[in-house]
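Encode chain A's predicted structure.
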Amino acid sequence: MTREQIPNLLSSLRIALIIPVVWAILAGYPLVALIIFIIAGLTDILDGWLARREDWETPVGGILDGIADKLLLICVYLCLWWLDSIPLWLIATLFGRDLLLGLGCLLYRARVGKFAAAPIPTGKLHTLFQICLVILILAQASLLPIISQELLVGVMRMLVITAVVSLLGYARQGYQDMRMAYYQKLHDAEKQA
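Encoded structure for chain A:
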């Protein structure tokens, strides 16, 4: 293994941590789940930092990192829903957003071609609220039962708001990029004629 593969190894570790975090949540060990979830989050921070700082970014690494992040959050959210810690409407909102983003990516790919999936600030904020909600729910169940239900509901509301705003932001960015690509194709066709 070369040093350049360390970020990919960390992403793979994050995927491997999904099984123990799911087990800990479903088996009723929220403190263990919280610790594993935080470790997984730290691997995400570390792999991104190393990839950017050392210029170890690779196409495979970018895909693996995104898959690791999505799989972890999807599995944890499904477990929390299964245990009635979060409502079905929140799951539907989060998964609906991701489904629409995926369909938008497919449309973009079909119309324009390859694209660089660059996160926008509201998308990063949305992910931050997703992580915060998991940490708060697991902390409430294990360490801090004083965390109020009002705080959890407030974070859930922010999740919905950032889901909608980030989805609209990505749609706007995709539309602008598709328009630019269309006009570029027209311009290139005029040059060739």
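The chain has a mean pLDDT of 87.
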